[in-house]
Amino acid sequence: MPAEIKSLIEQIEAIGQAALSEIGSAEGSAGLEELRVRHMGKKSALSQALSGLKDIPGEERKSVGQVANQVKSRIKDALGARLADVEAAERNSQLGSESIDVTLAGRPLPEGRLHPLTRILTEIEDIFIGMGFELASGPDMEHEYQNFDALNIPEAHPARDMHDTFYLHGGGVLRTHTSPVQIRTMQNRTPPMAILAPGKAYRCENADNTHSPVFHQVEGFMIDRKVRFSDLKGVLSEFLRQLLGPDIKYRFRPSYFPFTEPSAEVDILWSVDGRKPDWMEVLGSGMIHPNVLEAGGVDRDQYSGFAFGLGVERFAMLKYGIPSIRLFYENDLRFLGQF
Ligand code: DAH
Questions:
Q1: How far, rounded to the nearest angstrom, does the alpha carbon of residue 198 sit from its chain's CA centroid?
Q2: With 90 as the cut, is the pLDDT of residue 49 above it?
Q3: Alpha-carbon distance 148 to 161, whole Å?
Q4: Average pLDDT of the chain?
Q5: What is the pLDDT of residue 62?
Q6: 182 CA closest ligand 1 atom index
Q7: I need a surface site. Which of 51, 197, 273, 300 has the fewest CB within 10 A?
Q8: CB 307 less than 6 A from any atom of ligand 1
């Protein structure tokens, strides 16, 4: 073998050795990539050493080529093996530095809640719907006739003064209670009927902890042949047990409303703020006055019915322990967020 071929082969092997030792001590995948370009690329020392190969005659060119190929594939294998090690090391150190502390407290996601009035109203509706009642509604702006006269409250009746009415320009009132829905519903349906009518009521009074010029009521009534006071007691007792618990203590106390005869108010034995339980009035009720049935177009000789009205805010205040009616309308998220 001629001396210059021998020296070319030695040169190629030396290039290979140098490359392998550089690769062995390379740090990081970026450094390895740089080595790959330098040792495998077109301008590598190896390519340059082989640039004269085409001038070498057949047999000798073959042996130089063989050595060059071996060196190339050793460099390539070394690069691949080192790259796998380096990448594994990089992944491990990344995982180490990015580790997640699963014991860290979560960040709260803001979440919408039902308004306490919506919540108690839904509970009340569900209970009566469960007993076969249907929902109905009427307008907030009402005729004086529906709000008063048809409910057996004639012009000079003292109950009109008690209601602190908002009178509208051009006639009419803001309804002072939901009872006019009784009249409207009777006029549009034929008995039997069991109706629940939730809605707003308005009274011209100053706001304080227990009063608000606008508040919510639920009106309920049932009309059929032979509806009796015991039906009223049964339905309202069941309602109170479902809403406030099976052990709730309640009493029906004789009272007066122009639109019912006889009339009863219902009290519950309730403890406010952990104090000694006391009787609290929670709703008005009675047997629908025959004059009211007549105003609604119901035959007073064939049919009878009971009716009741309750304040939604009052029930929410008792059940959830809310100290002032104003809290319902102030939209303070610290209050609303508790429900
Ligand atoms: N409408 C009455 C009020 O607002 C509440 C009421 C009492 C409604 C007795 C009734 C009832 O249906 O029978 O003060």
A1: 23
A2: no
A3: 11
A4: 92
A5: 84
A6: 12
A7: 273
A8: yes
